[in-house]
Amino acid sequence: MHRRRWARGGRAVLLAGALALVLTGCSAHDVEKKLRFGWPTGVTKQAEKMRVLWTWSGVAALCVGVLVWGLIFWCCIRYRKRNDELPRQTKYNLPIELVYSLAPFIIIAGLFYRTVIVEDDVNKLSKNPDVLVQVDAFKWNWQFEYLDSHDTKTVYSSDKKTPLSTVGSDDEIPVLVLPKGETVQIIEHSEDVVHSFWVPEFLFKRDVIPYGPDHTSEDNRFEFTATQNGSYVGRCAELCGTYHSQMNFEVRIVDPAVFEKYLAALDKAGQDNPARQSVALKAAGMAPRATTTYPFNTDRAARSASEKSGS
């Protein structure tokens, strides 16, 4: 009997020691990564709010799991068969029935409440965003128009008649340049069918519904605040026709000073310049072409020539 107790105690000590080694060997980054429970790293404030919701949902699920597993193992040990005598049977226990009826309801209500709060935060629109961009989707490309305010008639341009914009073409993938740390509101507009604005690193996508030229539907608006500089691939996430798979764009997050420099260069390049996007990007100190549209070559003309030569 004593040997069995010592053996059990030894195993417990070894388990505790192994657990301590695992925990002490984890850096703060490793701990944060584990607490994401598989949730990817986002680059916007809205993505972080969704990550927090996911993390605490995972913690709640683990707590429920530990409780259920604990009760199962406790019952297996406490009421294991010792002889042919049946243990005392308990039924119609009102306190226990109330607990296992109310507890799941409280947990579900809490998760539902937090989900609604986060969803409202993600969908919240500012009256005066720092940057307003109209995204025009069409078969099979994108146009980005930089607007001056919530009034879509006022635009970033020297002539005050046409918006500063970039548009994709057969040989150039459009690049949407945006400032880090500022509120960006997107107005979506489709020229033909339903498309979808999707940037995987934003952990968010929104269908582009063709509501007409007035853009009155709030469903076609959303906003975000980027927290990290970088270039991020954007795609159409709604099957929209023959060249849907090649309907890519790039979002480039830069410092506000670089963003203002880019807008000035875009205005200076002129509306009638087919290479105005490349010229403006280069003038602002950035790569003149999209760099994150894998698996498609960003130089569409070169890709088309390669495909023809291969065939």
| Physical arrangement of strands within the biggest beta sheet | 3-2-1-5-8
Q: Mean pLDDT, rounded to whole units? A: 80
Taking the sheet with the most strands, its summary is: 5 strands, mixed
Helix content: 40-55%
CATH topology of the largest domain: Immunoglobulin-like
What is the molecular shape? elongated
Query: What portion of the residues fall into strands of 2 or more residues?
Result: 15-25%
N- and C-termini, Cα separation:
80 Å
Structural class designation? alpha+beta
* Poorly predicted residue ranges: 16-21, 149-156
* Number of beta-strand segments: 10
Please tell me about this protein's structure.
The chain is built from seven helices and ten strands. The chain folds into two domains: 27-79 and 95-124, no CATH class; 131-294, Immunoglobulin-like. It has helices at 2-24, 28-35, 45-78, 94-123, 256-269, 276-283, 300-310, and strands at 131-138, 141-147, 164-167, 175-179, 183-190, 195-199, 204-208, 221-225, 230-236, 248-254. It has 311 residues and is an alpha+beta fold. The model is unreliable at 16-21 and 149-156 (pLDDT under 50). A five-stranded mixed sheet has the order 3-2-1-5-8. A five-stranded mixed sheet has the order 4-10-9-6-7. 23% of the residues are buried. This is cytochrome-c oxidase. Subunits I and II form the functional core of the enzyme complex. Electrons originating in cytochrome c are transferred via heme a and Cu(A) to the binuclear center formed by heme a3 and Cu(B). The chain crosses the membrane at residues 52-77, 98-117.
